[in-house]
Amino acid sequence: MIVNQLIKRYQELGCSCKPIKLKNSLRINTLKIDEKEAISRLKELKVKLTKIPYTDNGYFYESKFSLASTTEYLQGYIYIQESASQLPAKVLNPTPGEIVLDMAASPGSKTTQMAAIMNNKGIIIAIDNDSRRLLSLRNNL
Hints:
Blueprint: H1 2-12, E1 25-28, H2 35-44, E2 48-51, E3 58-62, H3 71-74, E4 78-80, H4 87-92, E5 99-102, H5 109-117, E6 123-126, H6 134-140
Parallel strand pairs: 5-6
Antiparallel strand pairs: 1-3, 1-4, 2-3
């Protein structure tokens, strides 16, 4: 497997490679809720939040339960999204009125993030070559 080959090569260069558990992270969907209101609601649920310094509406979180079972998640107020996955839309920084092509759009995390950055004013053409994943994209839009 290529991953094992890369790890072996990395170790041959004198580096160590240990798997680490990524921090849980989310993004607040500011198209549906004010950021302060979302933070307040999550804190009421005893969710510990830490601002992700390199994103606009991203937070690392700690919770004793699955956030996917909360009203905030089910209403689309928050989107569970890896912190690194929040960077492409921020770097692209689309402006309201622009036309954006998202060529690997499923499940929709970056697509919905771009829509929020654009204040839902513009056109995002969201496509994916995996038809099985398109349902999740449609559900998230």
